[in-house]
Amino acid sequence: MLKGKGVTVRPIVGEDLPMLYEHQLNIENRGEFFPATITPLSQLQKDLKEHGFWRDDFGSVVIIDNESGKLVGQMFFFKTVQYMTELEIGYIMYDTTSRTRGGMTEACKMLTTYLLDVRPVNRIRLCIATDNRASRRVAEKSGYVHEGTQRGAAWNKGKIYDMELYAVTRDDWQKPN
């Protein structure tokens, strides 16, 4: 468990599944940029039982608001390509009232630190739709460096998006951020 001032990042447990599933069903709440895919509840239950949403190449955690105790968001990490020693982090703040309060920046910093502490990777990246200003701000406030634009790199809800690549290396992260 990673406990910050405003939010806690922790592994998914069985009691989280109904709320996670409810959040996943609310596609409109995801905004323009987060994928609209839905994982069936039975698959969530199976994944929890088989590996607890935690493997060498993939993991998912929930974000809990420390004041209310509510599940307000979710984060993912996954290996990018075989020949690179990097992971990518994705995230969503499901609870719209929790957005713009700094919780995702805090959660991103905590998960980045944790992954660099326990995983044999040298880089962690974020890929963010060019027009997603809020998420780009999270990246910047979390200490990630903008490395470039990936043209036409993502498709979501019938539209192709350019994606901005942000990353930190282990050396970057060891500097004060």
Give the strand content: 35-45%
What is the overall number of helices? 5
CATH topology: Aminopeptidase
The CATH class turns out to be: Alpha Beta
Q: Biggest β-sheet, characterized? A: 8 strands, mixed
Radius of gyration: 16 Å
Write the H/E string, N to C. Answer: EEHHEEEHEHEEH
Based on Cα principal axes, name the global outline.
globular
How far do the termini sit from each other?
Answer: 21 Å
How many strand elements? 8
CATH architecture: 3-Layer(aba) Sandwich
The CATH fourth-level homologous superfamily = Gcn5-related N-acetyltransferase (GNAT)
Task: Write up this protein.
It is a single chain. The chain is of the alpha+beta class and 177 residues long. The protein contains five helices and eight strands. The chain starts with a strand and ends with a helix. Strands 1-2-3-4-5-6-8-7 form an eight-stranded mixed β-sheet. The longest helix is centred in the middle third of the chain and has 16 residues. The model has no long low-confidence stretch (mean pLDDT 93). It has a single domain, classed as Gcn5-related N-acetyltransferase (GNAT) (Aminopeptidase, 3-Layer(aba) Sandwich), CATH 3.40.630.
